[in-house]
Amino acid sequence: MSEGRPLRLLALHGYRQSERRFRQRTGALRKALRGRAELVAVSAPHLVPGDEDDGGDDPPRGWWFSGPGTFEAGEAAAAPAGLDESLSAVAAALEERGPFDGLLGFSQGAALAAMVCSLRARGDPRFPVAFAILVAGFASCAPAHGHFYREPIALPTLHVVGDADAVIPAPLSRKLARHFVEPVVLAHPGGHFVPAAAPQKKAYLDFLDRFRPGQGRAEPLGAGAV
To answer: Domain holding 73: CATH number?
Structure first.
């Protein structure tokens, strides 16, 4: 990373959102990070069935499905569909729109980002990121996805947990954090959104400062110093 350049984060939206919708909903966060980090959102590859016309030219999208055209975070899906295409889409965005320093994911996008972190920590060259911010994240309950969590994930992460989140309850986000080595957990009193008030802004910036020039960028524990 060149001196003076803001960090660049690939942003992964939640289920039934899109690149444009996520940009609209993260205006306060982008303002809070101005000059320190840039968010570059990317759309999931899958249209949510039945919702194609909801939003006109910007239909809702998802990263994977737990059932035929549906998604429930707590469902132990026997045949989850679409994840491989989404991992390929993230890898393509990192290559084509990079370089990127880290990831920011929200809800299903945070769950996907955690999977990317797991692959990165194992040395997967498709995902050259050094850290992730996971907002309202969760670990997939699908048995087919269990391999992502078998070993502690050695990549620096900030986990943002909404104590009043009725969509992804706080215990699910805290459970995801426990799959990581030395996770940083930031709790806020709100619900299912990306918080950007003063206390959260400070926590974001403190975490991101670990990866700025002169601070020593972190790498996966197996690949170098943290």
So the answer is: 3.40.50.1820
50 sits in the region (left: phi over 0; alpha: psi -120 to 50; else beta) called: left
Query: Terminus-to-terminus CA distance in the chain, angstroms?
Result: 16
Amino acid, single-letter form, for residue 158? L
pLDDT score for 133 = 98
pLDDT in tens, 144-155: 999 999 999 999
Structural domain of 48? 7-214
Mind telling me the catalytic residues? 107, 165, 192
- Residues 80/140, Cβ–Cβ less than 8 Å: yes
Kindly state the helix (H) or strand (E) to which residue 133 belongs, with its residue range: strand 131-135
**Dihedral, CA of residue 202, residue 24, residue 70 and residue 161, to nearest 10:** 10
Q: Confirm whether 220 is domain-assigned.
A: no
Q: Tell me, yes or no, whether 222 lies in a domain.
A: no
Structurally, the chain folds into a number of domains equal to 1
* Residues 28, 178, 61: CA angle, nearest 5 degrees: 45
Phi and psi angles of residue 47, each rounded to the nearest 5 degrees, phi first: -75, 140
pLDDT tens digits for range 99-147 = 999 999 999 999 999 999 999 999 999 999 999 999 999 999 999 999 9
